[in-house]
Amino acid sequence: MHGAILYLSRIDIDVARRDTFFLHALTGPSMDRSAGPLYYKGWYHLFYQWNPDSAVWGNITWGHAVSRDLIHWLHLPLAMVPDHWYDINGVWTGSATQLPDGRIVMLYTGATEESVQVQNLAEPADPNDPLLREWSKAEANPVLVPPPGIGLTDFRDPTTAWRNPADSAWRITIGSKDRDHAGLALVYKTEDFLHYDLLPTLLHVVKGTGMWECVDLYPVSTSPAVEDGLETSTPPGPGVKHVLKASLDDDRNDYYAIGTYDGETDTWTPDNADIDVGIGLRYDYGKFYASKTFYDPVGRRRVLWGWIGETDSERADILKGWASLQSIPRIVMLDTKTGSNLLQWPVVEVENLRMRGKSFDGLDVSPGSVVPLDVGKATQLDIEAVFEVDTSAADGVVTEAGAAAYSCGTGGGAVGRGLMGPFGLLVLADDQLSERTAVFFYLVKGVDGNLTTFFCQDELRSSKANDLVKRVYGSLVPVLDGENLSIRILVDHSIVEGFAQGGRTCITSRVYPTKAIYESAKIFLFNNATNVRVTAKSLKIWELNSAYIRPYVN
């Protein structure tokens, strides 16, 4: 699942517990993807898959945490455990649907005694309890089994239901794949959440993408005047697009596309088939998987969580006693300026954790330079930066043939030197820069003179530990005429979440510094380009308070 989360930092193989500004499950679990987030009677609820007995995957139960503000979380006892034949091998991911009368139905995948994936129904045992501490599994379970043509272990993760405008019945979709390794989403119709009809058409299918997990379908507004999120059952029509997202089991990344949902045929069509689900855009280009959204009726917004897995060894996880966590919750909406991508941004409540802040405006960062920034303790930070780039020195110099000549993963990272990049910030760095995580832009000029912008995060020198997977993550980021380059970075000891151009491209890094910890963690500006001058037009850095995650006490 995606569980609650605590951002911790590591000293070699031993991990000391750090302050955190979001939520980490209780000591000792292996955390996985989230399930059934919802708002109910004054509380936000996050359920999540976890193993309460070990820091490795297995014995999947549902953990449960609640919050008034999406930031300060309280852990509750386990919500559901594998205790029936239909879920004895795991209470896997599911989704909550709140009906018009206030009733909550929770559909979830169970792994049976024979490890067949089936769908089950649970409801609150006491709907008057705002904390939803007890859940009752339906006597009719399982309510769905794999249909003909679908593998017994390829049928999981039911979505939040939406009401179809054509017949007012409910629809859910479930991810799977076919015999030819095409990823797909099945659609079921129900009126009571106990009896279902498999519809004859697929919601969508994309060749070669393999098993689709954690499918999500939700509406977004296309109007610049409407900044609110849309409730899941908002019907298709003018001013509405639908996002289809799938987590690809093949490469463990979350892909989405923007398109049109047809309520008459219960099918979805991408706006651009070249960037269809699984072959185009991603929520996040770093360590971010099995995400889930829900509609927040209080904030009138769609909120997204993603599961951040570990990149160290299983042995290290066992020694430190926990594994995996959740991203900071993000709002998600259509980018109405481009019309072709989403925007993701940390929920505004994160700003309530801001404490001391410093501004560094108008700082020049000349080619080849590294500029230290004195902010004191730099382990929990909220950073907002706007860069102006003078590319005049590169006029008339064409050494790179457009976007095809560069990628974040193969371009040398932050230490490589190009005509117009890399430049940006070094976070979780020590004084000698022997450890640092780089968050940067890289500009490429094509033969036509047009600029392409890449947004990247370089983990290659993030830690002296030798049992880690370290990568350079990133992708293109759209930059419109007249826009400066902008970035927001959330740093929390061993997590770095970057948001470029208002959240058009996002990257999450899981890092394990051994030197850049506590008071030894520093932050720097850098410019490794050879031919551009960079100015930090606006740079604001806040230290963040802890969210003081703790168990709920009556």
CATH class of the largest domain: Mainly Beta
CATH architecture of the largest domain: 5 Propeller
Helical content stands at under 10%
How many strands, which pairing sense, and closed or not: the largest β-sheet?
7 strands, antiparallel
CATH topology of the largest domain: the name is Tachylectin-2, Chain A
Helix and strand content put the structural class at mainly beta
Quick check: average pLDDT?
Answer: 92
Return Rg in Å. Answer: 23 Å
β-strand percent reads 35-45%
Distance between the termini: 27 Å
Query: Which regions are unreliable across 5 or more consecutive residues at pLDDT < 50?
Result: 1-28
Number of structural domains:
2
Please state the overall shape, judged from the principal axes of the Cα atoms. globular
Main location: secreted
Catalytic activity: Hydrolysis of terminal non-reducing beta-D-fructofuranoside residues in beta-D-fructofuranosides
Keywords: Cell wall, Glycoprotein, Glycosidase, Hydrolase, Secreted, Signal
Organism: Oryza glumipatula
